[in-house]
């Protein structure tokens, strides 16, 4: 993927850039809003990672300007402030996702990946498949190798999310946001517990492991 | 509507109008009364003079027979309603148009006219002995009675339009004033509920004093908006300035953890450093959030929140943690549906999360933690109750203070800001926070006002 990172702090900028390059992306790094505007409008990027506080042109104005100019590349905001208010104002300005500093690289990488290939509205399939597993969304039925698996509603939702975003890591916070609609970080292992219950039903009775743990990041189902 | 009417009746213009009207009525009443009394007196004097003159005319008669003839002649052309003439001759014979008699009730006048034996009304009478008989002349006071009616009419005709005019004028002014006061009070409501962009705006056509108050309200709102904006700028600057180095430390620590030649004790120290960093970030976030909540700005985002669903979610989220600690966490589903309250779902979720985490972290194994919801006529109660040791009575005030921790809690996780955050979020929702001993343990209860409609 081609990514543009707009971050004025050299250490953080280098860290993000290095990490994303190691994952095989082509990354351009700029350190102020003006340069970012020029760079973003002259090249085509799959995802933009933008710090909200930038010299010259701040992140919010940059994103508003880009959206106004018809640039629809997905944008991940990096911010120092973590309140809902800032999240909402960032999303209203045209941002697609929001990450509060300090963040772990795994979280950033997972969110960038999620943004790059967002599910399109056309993906209205009623049956989802991953390996030998089949999910009937209408009958709410899950089978693997012809064997029926009974899932609780939350387990079903987690599995559906992981399959819909096949190949991409879902972090703990992403799951908390999508499944439980919680945008703060509760001190609880609810995600781990649900994943392990899900694994006990979906993976344990079978030979191959479907749900993979990505160390320091989250969970993933490969196709 | 009745409240509005009561408000109108108590409004200044209407009260002033009523007071002025009362004053005006009293003055004009006094004036009319004085002139009535004066006119009545002069009427009576005229009547007396007339009576004396009449009497003088009859005195001129030379004999009783002549007097009787004169009375009889005069009586024929005189209406007893107006003037009564009565002469008892020395021989007891009566002449005149009516007889004046007296019984237990007082004087009576009996007319000689057919079909009208008794004449009522007030009279002024003069009686004298003349030529061996007794002559009585009485003049009716009907004129004075008419005069009274005239004065009453004058009073009604002059006062009634004034009353109507003044009252309706006052009412119109009061209504206009009430409308303007309502505009100002709605702006103040919006300002207190966090909408700092609310303004009274155009005040053309308003009364001077209300227009001046409106201008001052707008001026106050502008300065409040500026203050909050600059405060927000300052906190976001501070956040940026502090978060950047924190992020750098996180980057360096992460780089370090990636290296392969870290030995056991070094790795342990690195983990400690990461934990400490998490602590710093958590305190920092909580402080920033407290500042933002205390500015009241979350109110602008308030919407109806279903507490039952929120409690269910949070109970589910923390249930595994409770199980791991060998504690139980349950949500006692309320018997009657609890109405939604007006607030911020995310903040209310954090309140619950904080209360549940507190209960989980500060109670021993085997503790039962219950989330309870109930509603009364004017309130909705949200409680988290545990069977743990509770908080000593003397320290209940203190635990709400920032960064305060009970001695026995020093070793448990937490930054001491949890309950401050709960208190702040409660306050912004207009809720009261109670720490109390309840049946079967210790409870933290939040009492929310049951709102009829969200402020728009």
How does this model look, in words?
The complex is a heterodimer of chains A (223) and B (456). With 223 residues, chain A is α/β, with parallel strands linked by helices. Chain A starts with a strand and ends with a strand. In chain A, the strands form 3 sheets. Chain A has a 5-stranded parallel β-sheet, sandwiched between helices. Chain A has a 4-stranded antiparallel β-sheet with strand order 6-7-8-9, with helices on one face. Chain A folds into 2 domains: 115 residues, 3-Layer(aba) Sandwich (Rossmann fold); 95 residues, Arc Repressor Mutant, subunit A. Chain A contains 8 helices and 12 strands. The mean pLDDT of chain A is 87. Helix content of chain A is 40%, strand content 22%. The longest helix of chain A has 13 residues. With 456 residues, chain B is α+β, with helices and mostly antiparallel strands. Chain B folds into 3 domains: 106 residues, no CATH class; 87 residues; 148 residues, Histidine kinase-like ATPase, C-terminal domain (Heat Shock Protein 90), CATH 3.30.565.10. Chain B is 54% helix and 18% strand. Chain B has 9 helices and 14 strands. In chain B, the strands form 4 sheets. In chain B, strands 9-11-12-14-13 form a 5-stranded mixed β-sheet. In chain B, strands 2-1-7-6 form a 4-stranded antiparallel β-sheet, with helices on one face. A 3-stranded antiparallel β-sheet of chain B has the order 3-4-5, with no helix packed on it. In chain B, strand 6 and strand 7 form a beta hairpin. The two termini of chain B are 20 Å apart. The chains are: A alpha/beta (223), B alpha+beta (456). At the A-B interface, helix 1, helix 4 and helix 8 of A face helix 5, helix 6, helix 7 and helix 8 of B.
């Amino acid at each position: 993927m081609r990514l543009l990172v707009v971050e004025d702090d050299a250490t953080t900028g280098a860290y993000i850039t290095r990490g994303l390059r190691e994952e095989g992306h082509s990354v351009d790094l700029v350190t102020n809003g003006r340069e970012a505007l020029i760079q973003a409008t002259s090249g085509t990027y799959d995802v933009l990672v933008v710090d909200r506080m930038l010299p010259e042109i701040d992140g919010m104005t940059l994103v508003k300007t880009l959206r106004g100019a018809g640039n629809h590349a997905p944008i991940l905001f990096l911010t120092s402030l973590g309140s809902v208010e800032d999240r909402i104002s960032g999303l209203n300005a045209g941002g697609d996702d929001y990450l509060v500093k300090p963040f772990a690289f795994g979280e950033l990488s997972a969110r960038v990946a999620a943004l790059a290939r967002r599910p399109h509205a056309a993906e209205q399939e009623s049956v989802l498949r991953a390996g030998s597993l089949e999910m009937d969304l209408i009958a709410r039925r899950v089978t693997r190798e012809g064997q029926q698996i009974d899932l609780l509603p939350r387990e079903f939702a987690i599995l559906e999310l992981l399959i819909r975003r096949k190949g991409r890591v879902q972090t703990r916070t992403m799951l908390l946001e999508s499944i439980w609609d919680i945008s703060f970080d509760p001190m609880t292992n609810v995600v781990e517990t649900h994943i392990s219950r899900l694994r006990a039903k979906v993976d344990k009775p079978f030979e191959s492991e479907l749900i993979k743990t990505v160390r320091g990041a989250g969970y993933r189902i490969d196709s | 509507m009745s409240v509005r009417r009561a408000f109108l009746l108590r409004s200044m213009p209407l009260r002033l109008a009523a007071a002025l009207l009362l004053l005006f009525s009293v003055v004009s009443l006094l004036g009319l009364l004085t002139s009535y009394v004066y006119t009545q007196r002069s009427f009576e004097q005229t009547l007396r003079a007339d009576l004396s003159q009449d009497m003088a005319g009859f005195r001129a008669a030379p004999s009783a027979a002549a007097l009787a003839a004169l009375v009889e002649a005069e009586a024929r052309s005189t209406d007893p309603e107006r003037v009564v003439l009565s002469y008892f001759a020395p021989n007891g014979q009566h002449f005149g148009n009516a007889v004046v008699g007296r019984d237990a009730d007082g004087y009576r006048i009996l007319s000689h006219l057919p079909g009208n034996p008794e004449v009522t009304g007030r009279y002024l009478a003069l009686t004298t002995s003349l030529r061996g008989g007794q002559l009585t002349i009485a003049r009716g006071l009907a004129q004075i009675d008419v005069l009274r009616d005239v004065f009453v009419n004058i009073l009604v005709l002059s006062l009634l339009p004034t009353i109507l005019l003044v009252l309706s004028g006052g009412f119109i002014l009061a209504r206009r004033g009430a409308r303007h006061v309502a505009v100002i009070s709605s702006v103040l409501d919006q300002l207190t509920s966090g909408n700092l962009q609310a303004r009274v705006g155009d005040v053309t056509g308003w009364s001077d004093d209300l227009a001046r108050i409106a201008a001052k309200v707008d001026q106050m709102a502008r300065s409040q908006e500026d203050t909050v904006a600059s405060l927000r700028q300052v906190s976001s600057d501070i956040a940026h300035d502090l978060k950047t180095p924190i992020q750098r430390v996180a980057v360096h620590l992460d780089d370090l953890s990636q290296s392969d030649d870290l030995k056991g004790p070094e790795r342990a120290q690195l983990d400690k450093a990461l934990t400490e960093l998490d602590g710093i970030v958590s305190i920092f976030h909580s402080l920033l959030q407290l500042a933002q909540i205390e500015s009241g700005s979350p109110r602008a985002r308030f919407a109806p929140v279903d507490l039952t669903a929120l409690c269910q979610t949070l109970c589910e989220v923390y249930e595994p943690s409770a199980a791991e600690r060998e504690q139980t966490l349950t949500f006692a589903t309320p018997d009657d549906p609890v109405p939604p309250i007006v607030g911020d779902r995310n903040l209310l979720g954090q309140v619950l999360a904080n209360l549940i985490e507190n209960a989980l972290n500060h109670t021993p194994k085997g503790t039962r933690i219950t989330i309870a919801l109930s509603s009364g006529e004017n309130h909705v109660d949200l409680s988290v109750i545990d069977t743990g040791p509770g908080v000593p009575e003397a320290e209940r005030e203190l635990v709400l203070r920032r960064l305060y921790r009970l001695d026995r809690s020093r070793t448990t996780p937490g930054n001491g800001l949890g309950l401050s955050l709960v208190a702040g979020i409660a306050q912004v929702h207009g809720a009261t926070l109670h720490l109390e001993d309840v049946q079967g343990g210790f409870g933290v209860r939040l009492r929310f006002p049951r709102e009829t409609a969200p402020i728009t």
